[in-house]
């Protein structure tokens, strides 16, 4: 299993180059986020997306969440955020709140799971943001585990996912609940999945 170790409090961007190269080549990268370790691929490469589903043992009908380096990167990817989405992004990003955006035609069909939308966020973990920034576009960040197994807070043991997975070990992640997913393209917004950010906090942030 290939990989590297970085200190999330102090790391050189150049150290992440092998992980980014692996993504560009259609590979899978396990990386830390502000919840758990996630599995990243280039969402525009259909073969990489297919292999990701195989590694997870996950039904190809389930959409894959994405992460990006900034709000600007999200809008370059999926178009301008709705007014409510933009308010939530400014309030909670970087952090564990994912927003639904319309799936662009550039991504592999399996990423949206047939829904026409994808959940995306700017993560609070500096290594995850850095990798997405160096890659230059959003990447997937589905949990680094086989479907049905607990999500991973540590890089130790991720080798069981297969030798082709490049692991970026940045120590233990916070764990807790997964990211909250909200559809704020509609008004009032709709809770898609409960998670780290409580629904009350989401609604409270929208009160004038």
Q: What's the assembly state of these chains?
A: single chain
Helical residues, percent: 25-40%
Overall tally of domains: 1
Strand arrangement in the largest pleated sheet: 7-4-6-5-10-11
Number of strands: 11
Number of helices: 7
Structural class: alpha/beta
Our estimate of the beta-strand percent is 15-25%
Entry summary:
With 208 residues, this protein is an alpha/beta fold. The protein has one domain: DHBP synthase. 28% of the residues lie in helices and 20% in strands.
3D architecture notes:
This protein has one domain (3-205): DHBP synthase, CATH 3.90.870. Helix content is 28%, strand content 20%. β2 (28-32) and β3 form a beta hairpin. It is an alpha/beta fold. The mean pLDDT is 95. The protein has a six-stranded mixed sheet with strand order 7-4-6-5-10-11. Strands 1-9-2-3-8 form a five-stranded mixed sheet. The radius of gyration is 16 Å and the shape is globular.
Keywords:
DHBP synthase, 5-stranded mixed β-sheet, 208 residues, alpha/beta, 7 helices
Write the layout of secondary structure elements.
Layout: E1 3-5, H1 17-24, E2 28-32, E3 37-40, H2 46-56, E4 66-67, H3 71-78, H4 83-92, E5 97-102, H5 109-112, E6 117-121, H6 126-135, E7 139-140, E8 142-143, E9 165-169, E10 180-183, E11 190-193, H7 199-205
Parallel strand pairs: 1-9, 2-9, 4-6, 5-10
Antiparallel strand pairs: 2-3, 3-8, 4-7, 5-6, 10-11
Helix pairs in contact: 1-6
């Amino acid at each position: 299993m290939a990989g590297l170790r970085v200190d999330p409090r102090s790391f050189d961007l150049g150290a992440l180059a092998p992980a980014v190269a692996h993504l560009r080549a259609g590979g899978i990268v396990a990386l830390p986020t502000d919840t758990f370790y996630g599995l990243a691929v280039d969402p525009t490469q259909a073969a990489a997306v297919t292999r990701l589903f195989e590694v997870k043992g996950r039904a190809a009908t389930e959409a894959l969440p994405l992460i990006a380096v900034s709000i600007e990167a999200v809008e370059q990817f999926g178009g301008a955020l709705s007014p409510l989405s933009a308010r939530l992004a400014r309030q909670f990003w970087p952090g564990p709140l994912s927003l639904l955006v319309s799936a662009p035609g550039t991504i592999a069909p399996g990423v949206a799971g047939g829904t026409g939308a994808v959940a995306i966020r700017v993560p609070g973990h500096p290594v995850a943001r850095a990798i997405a920034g160096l890659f230059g576009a959003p990447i997937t960040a589905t949990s680094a585990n086989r479907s049905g197994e607990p999500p991973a807070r540590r890089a130790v043991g991720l080798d069981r996912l297969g030798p082709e997975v490049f692991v970026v070990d940045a120590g233990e992640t916070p764990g807790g609940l997964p990211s909250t997913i909200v559809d704020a393209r509609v008004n009032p917004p709709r809770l898609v999945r409960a998670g780290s950010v409580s629904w009350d906090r989401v609604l409270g942030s929208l009160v004038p």
